[in-house]
């Protein structure tokens, strides 16, 4: 949408008048009083009022033209109360012809506002946070125009600098009572990447200070904006080249995630909104900040994980664009940093994380973030522990504070006491010693004391994971999640890109077998270029093999790429989330046709093995038919158990309600082991259950002989395997199958201790 010069003359004039008052003499409240008078006159309104957010999320009337003067500082509204509170709660403008008919209208007799009908309120935003509300009212019913609303939003952005600057309300007032202090503090979060890290707090605050909000020459600002965009694009191009040595799983395009950034940076909708804001009278910097604040506020209540993460990508780009506009390249990543960094941020994009020397990063603590975010994927690949959802961490941590990120137990220690430090030091020392032990065990067989061989394999999803198969001494890759390179791209990778990626996986595995799971998306794994995937119950919805059978071209392209990469090599293909034999047969028919097609083009694998993932319990009742058609079967325990117990594994309210070590699980898996043994079909357990020593011991007792796990789990599980006697464990486990208890965990632990099994 373009805006004509005539249409913006009024908004520009109003902005300049507000700017002149803000730069003039008088106290902040005196200047605010003049500003509301100017706005009321310019909009031909009887009332203009400014409400400022106070501690406790209470909005206080700070200035008014038109309402009773004695109402200033007396009228207060809770967030969500009244029209003003509604605007604050939703961070969105509200334009009402008859405000008194709105269900949120709240009458305050001290204001004398009962005679006013129409009303428009806009949020005063700073950094995406509500810090006040600007409201205009008229006696007559009128619908305020889009230009008037745009003008108020621009003025609100200018006012945000006054409010946030501490001239009206002390900035310290909004810091929570348990915030910055000398006392130790423990904060809870969610584990996004495992591990323990100890170091010094570095606050990731790339916010640029905007000194000039109102433009003198809009055309000059547009020229500056275009030049800054060119600079940003060149910077991203250089960054893609610079991180080539940190392979994130994108074939030759090693900066897949950064490529997605480059696509977002070229998004015409984002650029058009910034251009429109410049045309209304803002400087280029102010326009970028305004568009970003509007976007962040509008998306504050969005729960879709992909959309939330794209907001973080946009925030990173907005900060980078502001750096190019202002020349303020002030990221802490380029400063004088400690050797042991614990990075603290509201959220952070993967490009921002890669600005830091990852060899000095000991941990990451985020106010937001999710397990499927780009930064979590990259951090796990770099073995950096990450905590997300640490509420208020930026209010409670100062740069230079000693911090401990205990992601394994989902907690952050701020200014830890000596006893906590001592415990963590002991844990870190023990962790280092055990890692050294596991390294020495790398070439030893995973063999029990009674000579039962167990095949230990790793799960992988990024190229950077693949070398772990060599480093850990694993037998191979029991599960390669092919969807991650799809998730971090801005467009579907074509056959050539996929072929290059799979070739590199084969090469880095150095002859060890790799089981490629075909595309498993949907549920909590969303692709940025597929729309309309929102569902009420996504875990049990249109996902995984259901999507690729409905969109066979996607699966066909992936199968062709796998076949080409596997030329003269062994190919293992596994189809995920098979719920009935017919689905497996349909997928295998597609594979057979592609094998025939590619053979005609000279691409012939040395051997082909085809398997299925058992994640849906219904498949066990068709096992006899299925086992006659598969070369191997893998159990994805994460999904299998949530379906068995009808318990969403992502719901914290259900955490701990059901145990993986329950009699029902044991009975199910024992039956499956016997079926596979009778039909001579190789069985592997691939879920998180396989990587925990106690659970792995129980699985071996049930007769499982192949496990696939995170690379870091290979050492602990191998140590456990070499300390156990498989037959004695089997006898004990089988005696528990008819137990009426909820969990067999305590009994298994006691058995392990009594028999010297190392957990």
From TrEMBL:
Q: Which GO terms describe its cellular component?
A: cytoplasm
Top-level EC class: transferase
Enumerate the cofactors the protein uses: Mg(2+)
What NCBIfam families does UniProt report for this protein, alphabetically?
A: PTS_I_fam (TIGR01417)
Report any one BP term from Gene Ontology: phosphoenolpyruvate-dependent sugar phosphotransferase system
Q: Which domain of life is it from?
A: Bacteria
Q: Which keywords describe this protein according to UniProt?
A: Cytoplasm, Kinase, Magnesium, Metal-binding, Phosphotransferase system, Sugar transport, Transferase, Transport
Question: InterPro entries per the record?
Answer: GAF, GAF-like_dom_sf, PEP-util_enz_mobile_dom, PEP-utilizing_PTS_enzyme, PEP_util_C, Phosphohistidine_dom_sf, PTS_EI-like, PTS_EIN
State the similarity comment.
Belongs to the PEP-utilizing enzyme family.
Q: Which Pfam families match?
A: GAF, PEP-utilisers_N, PEP-utilizers, PEP-utilizers_C
Task: List its EC numbers.
Answer: 2.7.3.9
- Which SUPFAM superfamilies does the record cross-reference, listed alphabetically? Enzyme I of the PEP:sugar phosphotransferase system HPr-binding (sub)domain, GAF domain-like, Phosphoenolpyruvate/pyruvate domain, Phosphohistidine domain
Where does this protein reside within or beyond the cell?
Cytoplasm
Q: What is the lineage of its organism?
A: Bacteria, Pseudomonadati, Pseudomonadota, Alphaproteobacteria, Rhodospirillales
Which chemical reaction does it catalyze?
Answer: L-histidyl-[protein] + phosphoenolpyruvate = N(pros)-phospho-L-histidyl-[protein] + pyruvate
Gene Ontology molecular function terms on file: kinase activity; metal ion binding; phosphoenolpyruvate-protein phosphotransferase activity
What name is this protein filed under?
A: phosphoenolpyruvate--protein phosphotransferase
Q: Which residues form the GAF domain?
A: 27-173
Kindly list any coiled-coil regions of this protein: none
Source species, please?
A: Thalassospira profundimaris
């Amino acid at each position: 949408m373009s805006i004509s010069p005539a249409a913006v003359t009024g908004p520009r004039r109003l902005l300049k008048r507000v700017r002149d008052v803000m730069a003039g003499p008088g106290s902040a409240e005196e200047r605010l009083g003049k500003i509301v008078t100017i706005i009321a006159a310019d909009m031909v309104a009887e009332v203009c009022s400014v409400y400022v957010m106070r501690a406790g999320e209470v909005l206080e009337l700070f200035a008014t033209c038109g309402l009773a003067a004695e109402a200033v500082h007396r009228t207060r509204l809770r967030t969500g109360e009244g029209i003003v509170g509604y605007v604050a709660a939703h961070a969105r403008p509200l334009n009402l012809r008859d405000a008194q008919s709105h269900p949120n209208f709240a009458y305050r007799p001290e204001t004398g506002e009962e005679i006013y009908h129409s009303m428009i309120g806009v949020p005063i935003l700073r950094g995406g946070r509500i810090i006040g509300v600007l409201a205009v009212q008229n006696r007559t019913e009128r619908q305020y125009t889009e230009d008037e609303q745009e003008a108020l939003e621009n003025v609100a952005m200018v006012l945000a600098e006054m409010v946030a600057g501490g001239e009206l309300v002390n900035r310290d007032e909004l810091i929570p009572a348990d915030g910055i202090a000398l006392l130790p503090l423990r904060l809870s979060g969610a584990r996004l990447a495992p591990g323990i890290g100890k170091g010094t707090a570095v606050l990731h605050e790339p916010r640029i200070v905007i000194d000039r909000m109102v433009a003198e020459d809009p055309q000059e600002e547009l020229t500056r904006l275009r030049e800054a965009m060119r600079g940003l694009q060149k910077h991203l191009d250089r960054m893609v080249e610079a991180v080539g040595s940190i392979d994130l799983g994108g074939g030759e395009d090693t900066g897949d995630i950064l490529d997605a950034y480059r696509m977002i940076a070229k998004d015409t909708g984002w650029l058009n909104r910034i251009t429109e804001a410049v045309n209304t009278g803002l400087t280029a910097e102010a326009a970028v900040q305004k568009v970003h604040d509007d976007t962040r506020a509008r998306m504050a209540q969005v729960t879709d994980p992909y959309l939330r993460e794209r907001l973080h990508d946009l925030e990173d780009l907005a900060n980078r664009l502001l750096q190019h506009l202002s020349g303020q390249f002030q990221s802490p990543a380029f400063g004088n940093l400690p050797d042991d960094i614990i990075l603290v941020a509201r959220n952070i994009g993967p490009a921002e994380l890669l600005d830091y020397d990852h060899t000095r990063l000991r941990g990451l603590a985020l106010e937001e973030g999710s397990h499927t975010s780009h930064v979590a994927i990259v951090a796990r690949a770099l073995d950096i522990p990450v905590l997300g959802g640490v509420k208020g961490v930026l209010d409670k941590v100062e740069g230079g504070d000693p911090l401990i990120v205990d992601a394994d137990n989902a907690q952050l220690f701020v200014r830890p006491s000596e006893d906590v430090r001592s415990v963590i030091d002991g844990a870190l020392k023990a962790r280092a010693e055990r890692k050294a032990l596991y390294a020495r065990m790398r070439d030893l067989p995973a063999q029990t004391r009674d000579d039962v061989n167990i095949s230990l394999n790793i799960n992988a999803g990024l190229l950077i994971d693949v070398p772990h198969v060599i480093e850990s001494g694993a037998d191979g890759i029991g599960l390669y999640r092919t969807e991650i390179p799809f998730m971090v791209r801005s467009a579907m990778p074509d056959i050539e890109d996929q072929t290059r990626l799979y070739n590199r996986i084969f090469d880095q595995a150095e002859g060890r077998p790799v089981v490629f799971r075909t595309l498993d998306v949907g549920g909590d794994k969303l692709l940025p270029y597929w729309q309309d995937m929102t569902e009420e119950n996504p875990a049990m919805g249109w996902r995984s093999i259901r999507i690729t059978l409905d969109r066979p071209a996607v699966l066909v392209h992936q199968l062709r790429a796998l076949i080409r990469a596997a030329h003269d090599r062994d190919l293992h293909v596994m189809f995920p989330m098979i719920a009935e034999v017919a689905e497996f047969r349909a997928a295998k028919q597609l594979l057979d046709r592609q094998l025939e097609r590619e053979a005609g083009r000279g691409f012939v694998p040395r051997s082909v093995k085809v398997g299925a993932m058992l994640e849906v319990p219904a498949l066990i009742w068709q096992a006899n038919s299925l086992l006659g058609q598969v070369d191997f079967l893998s159990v994805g325990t994460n999904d299998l158990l949530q379906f068995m117990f009808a318990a969403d594994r992502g719901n914290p309210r259900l955490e701990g309600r059901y145990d993986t070590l329950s009699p029902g699980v044991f009975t199910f898996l024992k039956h499956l082991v016997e079926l596979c043994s009778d039909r001579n079909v190789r069985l592997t357990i691939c879920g998180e259950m396989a990587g925990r020593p106690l659970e792995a011991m129980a699985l071996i007792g049930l007769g499982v002989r192949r496990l696939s796990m995170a690379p870091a789990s290979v050492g602990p599980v191998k140590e456990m395997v070499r300390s156990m006697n498989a037959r004695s464990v089997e006898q004990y486990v089988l005696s528990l199958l008819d137990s009426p208890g909820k969990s067999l965990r305590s009994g298994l632990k006691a058995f392990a201790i009594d028999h010297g099994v190392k957990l």
